[in-house]
Design brief:
The protein is α/β, with parallel strands linked by helices and about 375 residues long. It contains twelve helices and 15 strands. It has helices spanning about 15-25, 45-50, 60-65, 80-90, 105-120, 135-145, 170-175, 175-190, 295-300, 300-310, 320-340, 360; strands at about 5-10, 30-40, 55-60, 70-75, 95-100, 125, 150-160, 200-205, 220-225, 230-235, 245-250, 255-260, 270, 285-290, 345. The protein starts with 6 loop residues before the first strand and ends in a 5-residue tail after the last helix. The mean pLDDT is about 95. It binds nicotinamide-adenine-dinucleotide (NAD).
């Protein structure tokens, strides 16, 4: 493809995250254009195609992979499908953007990375927190030395639970909230501290309010110890009422910074009648609410997709890769093991034959 042409993108999936991908490419359209969408549910890919003027629709993503002009595929499908989709896309010669968490098992992660490497395509890991403007600002200040030596980084993401049924089914998700959102916090702390080796993981978790609905944990606390001495504290919940809460805290020898992802980008609002949409996972729009402007931009999704497209044109070096996703997955495995034993788990931690991370906590491990 000519280096000056836009990267042609095919999206796998047509619901929540697929919509974010499609919207993101439209918000920053300079480098890439979405030319196809593939998803099996009747009517859904057609609806996404109509909303974003995407010309081609497929119900089987493998047919989309046969389209010669598509260079990059984004995977916005349930977790248990990520590995096979990535491998199929790479074998079809497509660069791959895979949503978080990377996949279900460490063996799958290795196979995804190896296949992409062998096929000469990029495996890009869709961790938007590496692009979240407020968090990027905090990291820039830390890298400049604003806080001196950083000894603690905290990231927390909480709401009352995901929108789609498969997240609650650990067979398809691989775990509860720690798998779903702990992956963000682990990636964040690792990235923020400039990728020191994770030495150990200590984790506590439980199912506090959604026991009727899932075998997965709905609240988790995780402490990461990094080479060099810094710690990460990752808190996640699907049990937290009141909509989405996403924040960080950074503590160093000579300074501190706090960032609440939504507050400061929100309009404190009171409405008797309610209105259309406030922010992701907000349960209502009546009474006091905090509608966020430029929501996708404030998360960093358009900047993330823009960066990935530029990587494919060799204009930038990837800053979120399959290797990052694999490191996060290993820490997730260690976290579930730690929650089972009550002890800190040292890394490297490479259990084999485990079907999904949560099995280490629930004791379904045949290894
Ligand atoms: N980065 C983030 O902040 C973020 C936010 C939400 C979701 N995600 C991730 O994105 C992925 C999708 O989550 P979601 O919220 O969009 O879920 P969703 O349930 O809203 O959408 C899943 C989509 O996958 C499609 N799908 C299912 N089987 C398929 C198949 N065989 N071939 C092609 N498509 C298939 C479904 O039809 C649906 O369109 C998950 O891995 C999730 O963890 C990331």
């Amino acid at each position: 493809m000519a280096a000056s042409s836009k990267v042609k993108v095919g999206i796998i999936g047509s619901q929540f995250e697929a919509d974010i991908h499609a919207a993101s490419f439209q918000i920053m359209p300079e480098e890439a254009e979405v030319v196809a969408v593939a998803s099996p549910s009747p009517g859904h890919p057609e609806a996404l195609a109509k909303k974003y003027a995407i010309p081609r629709v497929f119900h089987d993503y493998r047919e989309m992979l046969a389209e010669q002009d598509i260079e990059m595929v984004t995977i916005a499908a349930p977790n248990y499908l990520h590995a096979q989709m990535t491998i199929n896309a790479a074998n079809a010669g497509k660069h791959v953007v895979c949503e978080k968490p990377l996949c279900m098992t460490l063996e799958e992660a290795d196979a995804m990375i190896d296949t992409c490497h062998r096929q000469g395509v990029l495996l890009l890991y869709a961790e938007e927190l590496f692009f979240t403007p407020k968090y990027v600002k905090a990291k820039e200040m830390a890298d400049e030395g604003a806080f001196g030596k950083v000894y603690l980084v905290k990231q927390s993401e909480k709401h009352f639970g995901p929108h789609a049924e498969w997240f609650w089914d650990v067979e398809r998700s691989g775990g509860g909230v720690f798998m779903d959102m702990g992956c963000h916090g682990i990636a964040f702390c690792y990235w923020f501290l400039n990728r020191p080796r994770i030495q150990s993981v200590l984790c506590q978790m439980g199912t506090y309010v959604h026991g009727q609905r899932t075998k997965g944990e709905d609240d988790s606390i995780c402490i990461l110890e990094f080479e060099g001495g810094a710690r990460g504290l990752v808190e996640n919940s699907w049990a937290r009422r009141g909509g989405m809460d996403d924040r960080i805290e950074v503590y160093g020898e000579s300074g501190v910074t706090y960032a609440n992802l939504h507050m400061g980008n929100a309009l404190p609002t009171y409405s008797e009648s309610g209105y259309g949409y406030a922010v992701e996972k907000a349960p209502a729009t009546k009474g006091w609410t905090y509608p966020v402007f430029e929501e996708l931009w404030n998360y960093g999704f358009p900047q993330e997709m823009h960066h990935f497209a530029r990587c494919i044109r060799s204009k930038e070096e990837p800053i979120a890769t399959g290797e990052d996703g694999r490191i996060v997955l290993e820490a997730l495995y260690a976290g579930y093991q730690s929650a089972q034993t009550g002890c800190r788990v040292e890394l490297p931690f490479r259990p084999t034959g485990v079907k999904r991370p949560i099995d280490l906590w629930q004791g379904n491990n045949d290894a």
